[in-house]
Design goal:
heterodimer, A: mainly alpha, 0% strand, elongated, B: mainly alpha
């Protein structure tokens, strides 16, 4: 198997087979990030293709000192924001629904710090809580805590200074904590 | 608090927060909540529905069309 670096060099020289291998390697993560930035399945599939078409066109400008995956995240983030900005504004929900956005998952098992894997119900609750976050806070949480990028990489992707990024990340985490508090085991001892 | 959780604080700032945590039950609870949320986010599995081979084939087809 050719190394990623070798595939990138061949793709930069115009080799579409090499580029297809790169797409296969990274499509899952790009698609996953797009879904978690707020796109639905159909949109994520379509936008993932756009991301790789843009990557193909931008390959001559890609510099090897950057991580290829981080470069793709940057394109994916920009494409997701573009798609989200074209959506009509959200409908105002009935008051009761706004008061408890996670209300219908009331029976979710509680998650203790000792839990090693996420219960499927809690996983859905967490995904829905992520959906509740404003787009900028959600992107910060997704890039840093779900995708596992460094603060420096994630701040560069969303185009803000590290201090501003850390503030978004903290606010996003705090909102998630508030939404999920009923499901978390937080008793002392 | 997020900076503390991520291990990104300078030693003096870290010590200051740890001193406060030793005295403030509410902030200990807050930290436990944040830690549980971050741990859960780390363990979220990849989004379902992605097929790298299919996406690669679609991209390849579109690149071929673009060249004509």
């Amino acid at each position: 198997l050719a190394s990623e670096r070798e595939l990138i060099r061949r793709a930069q020289a115009g080799d579409q087979d090499a580029f297809s291998e790169l797409v296969e390697l990274h499509a899952g993560r790009v698609y996953g990030a797009l879904r978690r930035f707020g796109l639905d399945a159909g949109e994520a599939d379509e936008v993932a293709q756009e991301v790789f078409l843009r990557a193909w066109r931008g390959l001559p400008r890609f510099q090897e000192r950057a991580r290829f995956s981080t470069w793709l995240y940057r394109i994916a983030f920009n494409e997701a924001q573009r798609r989200l900005s074209r959506r009509p504004p959200p409908r105002v929900e009935p008051h009761a629904a706004r008061d408890d956005p996670l209300g219908s998952v009331a029976e979710s098992p509680r998650l203790g710090p000792e839990a090693q894997t996420l219960d499927r119900e809690f996983e859905r609750t967490l995904e829905r809580a992520l959906d509740e976050l404003p787009a900028d806070l959600r992107a910060a949480v997704v890039l840093r805590d779900v995708e596992g990028l460094s603060t420096q990489e994630a701040a560069a992707i969303v185009g803000v200074r590290e201090g501003a990024f850390k503030s978004r990340l903290h606010r996003g985490r705090m909102q998630l904590r508030a939404l999920l508090e009923p499901y978390l085991k937080l008793e002392e001892g | 608090m997020s900076g503390y959780l991520d291990g990104q604080l300078a030693p003096r700032e870290r010590a200051r927060i740890e001193h406060h945590l030793g005295e403030c039950r509410e902030c200990r609870r807050l930290l436990r909540g944040l830690r549980a949320v971050v741990d859960a986010l780390h363990r979220l599995p990849g989004a379902e529905g992605a097929d790298g081979v299919e996406i690669a084939a679609a991209v390849r087809a579109r690149l071929g069309r673009a060249r004509i």
